[in-house]
Amino acid sequence: MRSPTIGKRHKFDTVQPGMPNRLLHGSVRVSHYSKFPRSPRLDAIVVDRQNPLDNFPLLRSKDVEEARDCLARIYGKRVLIPQHDVEGFNAIINACHLRDIGLLYGTFGAAASFEFPPVDYFCQLFPLRGTGETAIGQVSSNLIRGAGAVTSAEAPHQTKISADYAHLVLRIDAKALTAKLAALTGATINEPLRIDPRQEFKHPAAKMLQQYIPLLAETLSGATPPFPDWWIAQTEQLLMTLFLYGHHHNYSHLLEQDAPEAAFRQVKQAEEYIVANAQRDIRLEELAELTGVSILSLFAAFNKYRGYTPLEFIALARSRREKMQ
């Protein structure tokens, strides 16, 4: 079984959250977990592949009608609206689906418009080049590099893109995301989750998500499935947690409640629990319940006292356990 590995064109010497054991076995040399290196800055990372995720092809077509038919099979209706000028049309869609999350890449080579129906998942658009616009109800969002949009489940929307436009799309299953929200807050989720379509830029979790997605795309672009279950679980819980904390929605007030700051002893408590249970998937909610602080507080404390995140330590603990077996 081949796990995802970092693309060769990136030369990192530390482990990223959600990255598989091979990174720990390879370039990272750690004598003790208390000296685990910090994650590098990700703000300069770009997707340097012309068509990321090209090892997960979904659509390749220079024929507009063929592309319309393919998208109709996915969405249940014809979402691609033909334009007068289709010269240069070259539809490329790549899609990698894990369990409850998918990462897609799309470009069409010509200006295009889409009318998307309600779906059972949330999306965040990460433009890579070109320009566009997404309208959800009365709210419009410009699509440019560094500024995308978020769509809620069951929310129809319209999108227009330029001929040179390309983007990555993070898709999260609505039921799974709602379950994660309930686990994070301990609340019963009665009303459907609704995300503000205007992308958040200032929240630390939103920034981390913005930085992490290109790295994940590059990683998956050089990977061969099937992926380890633990890696999928760890990656998905990170993405869903960042998505919920990083964007404003109708349950944000539950996540923004003041929580006690985690102390060093709680970091140690979490580390000992992780080491003792490294043979299985460990959910962030477990660590929060164990230590009595929020996930965000625990992340902050790990960074403060150790210089790495709980998920990085989980990956390291798993790696060390496998080496001893």
Overview of the structural elements:
The protein is α+β, with helices and mostly antiparallel strands and about 325 residues long. Among the domains are: about 20-40 and about 260-325, Homeodomain-like (Arc Repressor Mutant, subunit A), CATH 1.10.10; about 55-175, Jelly Rolls (Sandwich). It is built from ten helices and eleven strands. The protein has helices spanning about 20-25, 65-75, 175-185, 205-220, 230-245, 250-255, 265-275, 285-290, 295-305, 310-325, and strands at about 55-60, 80, 90-95, 100-105, 110-115, 120-130, 130-135, 140-145, 150, 155-160, 165-175. It has a six-stranded antiparallel sheet, with helices on both faces. Strands 2-5-10-7-8 form a five-stranded antiparallel sheet. Helix 3 (about 175-185) crosses helix 5 and helix 4 packs antiparallel against helix 5 (about 230-245). The model is unreliable at about 1-45 (pLDDT under 50).
Which helices and strands, and how do they pair?
Elements: H1 21-25, E1 57-61, H2 64-75, E2 80-81, E3 91-97, E4 101-107, E5 112-116, E6 121-129, E7 132-136, E8 139-143, E9 149-151, E10 157-161, E11 166-173, H3 174-185, H4 204-221, H5 229-246, H6 252-255, H7 264-276, H8 284-291, H9 295-305, H10 310-324
Antiparallel strand pairs: 1-3, 2-5, 3-4, 4-11, 5-10, 6-9, 6-11, 7-8, 7-10
